[in-house]
Amino acid sequence: MKVKSMRVPEDIDKAIGYVARAEKIENTHSLRELARMGFESYITKEYKDGKLTLRKASNLLGLTLSETIDLFLDTGVKGNIHAEDVRILWSPSGHRMTEDSAKIPASCQRNATCEAPYRL
Q1: DSSP 97
Q2: C-alpha angle 74-77-83 in degrees, rounded to nearest 5
Q3: Proportion of the chain above pLDDT 90, given as a percent
């Protein structure tokens, strides 16, 4: 583990102390937990916004794919592929589908999101 030195604003210092007292842990451990929670929140938002794939998010978080999916589901994020995204997927023949040739599976036409919402 690396040692980092930083100035902490008063409100953040109070938050660190609050978590430390509530969890009965030391301030340094509290700061590490809060930093991890903030990073998880940031990665979740990036994934939800479509800026990260599930695999990249998993790698950044140091979690397995299933652990990352569980984390996202716990925060209400179900996936970042919607029915309209299916139109740009590769066709079974290996050729990129065009707007005219795209066929949306019936399961995706019925739902707001496709049944396999996680993009690897």
Answers
A1: P
A2: 145
A3: 52
Q: Are 71 and 40 in contact (CB under 8 A)?
A: yes
Residue 84 and residue 8: Cα distance in Å, rounded? 44
pLDDT per position as a tens digit, 11-35: 999 999 999 999 999 999 999 999 9
Q: Is 104 part of any domain?
A: yes
Question: For 119, which DSSP code?
Answer: -
| 24 and 62 assigned to the same domain | yes
Judgement on whether residues 74 and 90 belong to the same structural domain of the protein: no
HSE (side-chain half, CA atoms, 13 Å) at 79:
15
- Name residue 23's amino acid: E
The number of beta carbons lying within 10 Å of the beta carbon of residue 80 is 21
Radius of gyration of the chain (CA): 20
pTM of the model as a whole: 0.65
Residue indicated by tokens 């007292």: 21
DSSP code per residue over 43-70: HHHHHHTTSS-HHHHHHHHT--HHHHHH
